[in-house]
Amino acid sequence: MAGAPTESSRRIDLRLVATKEGFAAGFDELRRGLDALSLDARARFSVELIFEEVVANLVRHGCRNGGATTLSLEVLLRDDTVQLTFLDDGVPFDPRGRPDPAPAADLEHAQVGGRGLMLIRSVSKSLEYARTPEGQNRLTVAVSRDATSGPGMSDGARSGV
Amino acid sequence: MKMDITEDDGVVKVGLVGRLDTPGVDAVETRLTAAVCPRGARTIVDLSGVEFIGSLGLRMFITIARTLTRKNGKIVLYAPQPFVAQVFETSSLGDIIPVKPDVTSALALAKA
Predict the structure, then answer these.
(1) Could you tell me the pTM of the whole model?
(2) Are residues A138 and A86 in contact, defined by beta-carbon separation less than 8 angstroms?
(3) Which chain A residues are within 8 Å of B89, Cβ to Cβ?
């Protein structure tokens, strides 16, 4: 019988250790959670793209020497947006204001990396960062549930990043 | 992530099926690079089975494309799904790595 969405059908909570193995397992868990949410395909792609870029960056650059870095993610389904809140205990990293790679005239001059943040911005409605008093990075990203917003179609985050 | 590599009339055809996220790139990058880069192959890549790509996937294609160009080879991607195509457009990579709509146009460009 259909009824109002339950709390569990509108949110996902997961935790992972920032290693390649933890990343892969966390991504599987996220996708299983997303299967249970009624998201259109574009919003879902955007959520997965943000997860990929945030976690890949943490695994590659954000871990402290000598200790396991952990990350928690809360996904909240709101009426108009999906809100993702990442909390990690890695090295401080504020993604706001980092420049996009310059457009390349040709392959030889193309910057190989640095496109992760660019992709996050392209699918985000807003992006907020804070270093918490407990010494964690807290990144909150909102994705529009409007089917006309998505990769390359949202510039809302640029003005605020 | 599945990958099959065949060769016909001097062009290497690569079929990718799955997700080009970090685990997916880890699964195919070494084998794909080894199959086409050392000999500067003319290469076409069928993206129709790729449902996701992130920046690491873009990085893989840039690295391979650059190596191939230096060896007089070439890489042409084709038939991306809409959201994957949008990622290429957002990152302006479509300007420097050709992405064609179908195998016929990809093959023609690879042989040109």
Answers:
(1) 0.89
(2) yes
(3) 151-152
